[in-house]
From TrEMBL:
Its cofactor is FAD. It is an enzyme of class 1 (oxidoreductase). It holds the Pfam family FAD-oxidase_C. Belongs to the FAD-binding oxidoreductase/transferase type 4 family. GO terms for molecular function: D-lactate dehydrogenase (cytochrome) activity; D-lactate dehydrogenase (NAD+) activity; FAD binding; iron-sulfur cluster binding; metal ion binding. The keyword Metal-binding applies. Residues 533-564, 592-621 form the 4Fe-4S ferredoxin-type domain. This is D-lactate dehydrogenase (cytochrome). Its EC number is 1.1.2.4. One of its GO terms (biological process) is lactate catabolic process. Residues 39-267 form the FAD-binding PCMH-type domain. The lineage of its organism: Bacteria, Pseudomonadati, Pseudomonadota, Betaproteobacteria, Neisseriales.
Amino acid sequence: MLQGAYREFHHRLQEQIEPRRIYTDPLSTLAYGTDASCYRLTPKIVVKTQSEAEVQAILALAAEFVLPVTFRAAGTSLSGQAVSDSILVVASYGWKGLEVLENGAAIRLQPGVVGAAANAALAPFGRKIGPDPATINSAMIGGIVNNNSSGMCCGTAQNSYQTLRAIRVVLADGSVLDTADAASVAAFRASHAGLLGQLAALAARVRDDAELAARIRRKYKMKNTTGYSLNALVDFTDPLDILTRLIVGSEGTLAFVSEVTYHTVVEHPHKASALVFYPTIKAACDAVQVLAQHKDVVAAAELLDRASLRSVENKAGVPALIKTLSEDAAAILIETRAADPAALAANTAAIAGFIGHIDTLTGVAFTDVVSEYTQLWNIRKGMFPSVGAMRAAETTVIIEDVAFPIEHLAEGTLALQALFKQFHYDEAIIFGHALEGNLHFVFTPNFSGAEEVARYEAFIEAVCRLVAVDYEGAVKAEHGTGRNMAPFVEMEWGPVAYRVMQEIKAIFDPQGILNPDVILTSDALLHVKDLKPIPVVDALVDKCIECGFCEVMCPSRAITLTPRQRIVANREMAALRSAGDAPDRLAELEALYQYAGDDTCTTCGLCETACPVGINTGKLTTQIRQGHQSDTGWAAANWLAGHYDSATRGARLGLTLLDATHTVAGDAATGAVMRGLRRVFGRRVPHWTPYFPRAAAKPRLGAGTAGSARKVVYLPSCLTRTFAPSGAMPDPRPLNEVVASVLGKAGYQLLYPAGLDNLCCGTPFKSKGALDAAAAKLAELKAALLTASDNGRWPVIVDNGVCTAAMLEGIQDARLRIVDVTTFIETEAAAHLHFTPLDEHVALHVVCSMKKLGQGATLNALARRCSSRVTEPAGITCCGFAGDKGFTYPELNASALTGLKEQVDGCCGGFSTSATCEIGLSEHAGIPYQHLMYLVDRATRRPG
């Protein structure tokens, strides 16, 4: 229950922002109290904003009540800058504006755009944004700008500070400045002359202090995100330029960034990499110092110590040599890029010459083969998750980043390794962006006891003294200061520079309400407070490092919880159950979790594809559902599994009655009736749209080309056998007839398993936790397919991508070759078909199960055989229909497909590989979606 000023703030805010986007419940506040750092703070109020006006309203009320405000985008920040125990403003799902400018020379972005999405939009122009953090597939522009993120190739020349073209911000007083708008700039110069005058005076004073100015210039020759961007005070004289650059890297402590325009950089199409092994760290660092003098040809040079190499030496594709290396050995992973093969060859030859005088263990050998250099970089990228996956229970994973002056890189690395030994962090590894003297180190402390916290405190103190004092480096090179290093900013910069930073904060935020304690703090022990607990929950998710990489893949991310948040909630509930001292809080969390964590989880498993430690949170949901099943529920599931043909007949009867009603009443009246029934009977009545399927007639099982030597076993899915296309669809034929048509044209005879009406892959049962029933249906299906395929002689073709994936996972029998029909057409049957691409613009949706199988490119290739233009909308992952959830929880489907309609504007139709997914896609795209085989049938004929 909110008290005092927070209660009044909440009451007043609901008058200006939809209450459904303002959260005070214990589950939501817990879920948003976690970012990728080792800290947890529980906000009192979480607000999901959608506009500048809403941010202005929040800031006005916060100023009135003097309440702290923290801004958050993706929450992938590693230093605790995106958590709050006050008011948390989320600027992600409502902030997706993206506009490519001047043929890719620039790009305008809102804070909720994922970095990878920006690069995808720029790819056709051969450009990208400058910052390239390792988190770019999940980090959002708001965090990238506010942390001045860099990465492997970005260095100090292409970060946000250097590539900023324009910025639009909301200041603490609610005023808006858009530096791309001359009128806005002029108005701001007039209204904020005092603020600009203070900045100009401060900058002049800093420039007049020769010692301080020289120190600032020296420290920004290397990567440095410790404190505010003091280089703005020496790089610029116009106070407006100073203001905009100070906001870069300010971590939400000076203003809210609502839009940024970047100058983009070239993305060279040709690349080559070399993994070079050295006998010692010293030798490797000597090579790095040479390479750092040739950044015109060296795009990246990653230093890998022996411990980091050991962390991946047993993984597939890793060179066997790594296991034989001595304890002193190290490696450098070098990349070069060029516009054409000749320039690339010149680069690789030059680099080999630059470092040829330094002894190596294996020589310098580059590869420009995509699969080979991708494997090399996967070795590097696999180090952090490897440590995370191997850590002990209840430990957390911390990845720190520091920067040494390049001339001290070898000494600094050896000194860091000595600190690991001194403080007994024996699992720690070092790797990093060595061209910039930037090292990351990963270790796994346990914060469950005071002694361990004290060890961590002493270790961090020692690291900061080593880096900042002994070598005059940066204790934060690219991850931002956050809460983590706020107590050490003065240690690094000294009292004079620190007072300058305090003045900057006071000029922008005189009340001190924007993200307090981040960057600047008076609490010397802030970095060891509010440390995140990691209680044991289940082996399925205990390795979660709460990084948030999964969130961009989750269909429920904008409506309820993400996989990370589901794990956070389950950890909290597990801790409460173990302690047994807060039964009311536990009961409340469990009740709230039912809808937010369970009912709206699709169990699609796409989170696993982005998770650095390979966690599929959907499996946890399935397990929870299994535990919730009652004896009655088990009995019903088992009865249904044993009488599946009866169930599908019942479904067809219901669909027949509904279709008859629709034929008489029409779209509007049918929709009104169904909505009314849902209001009365709840989710038991399905959500209806004009794309709702009709009942399938008894399937006509076409034989294809009878008597052909080419044979396949065709399994029409239970959805194909139950559903016929809606009358709103352009092709009314049942899918099985379309498949038979295509395969017949390709000269295949079709065989069918016996007892077809009762066969099922088990997915409807498994998704609801009825694992025994699911296993029984898979076993029954396997037996039928073995018989139909002559014990595996003929391939088994499946017409639903979800079913294909379930069968490949669940039927472990080398005799059976199970192939999705689309894959079969593209990889085999296409040789026996004549394709004539249609002059049509079509949309393609790859269902989540096919994405997990890695079949996206195959489906795209098949669609491009059939149509002159194919659009695969960006940012649309799982559609959220999840079998039947689109009927019962249509809000999940609607949320997951936000932005689809705009991206398929101009398409004449859409195609996918799952009947239920196609229902939801059709509703939210505004164009009909059917199975991709309908398009294939239209675009093919028999050869000759």
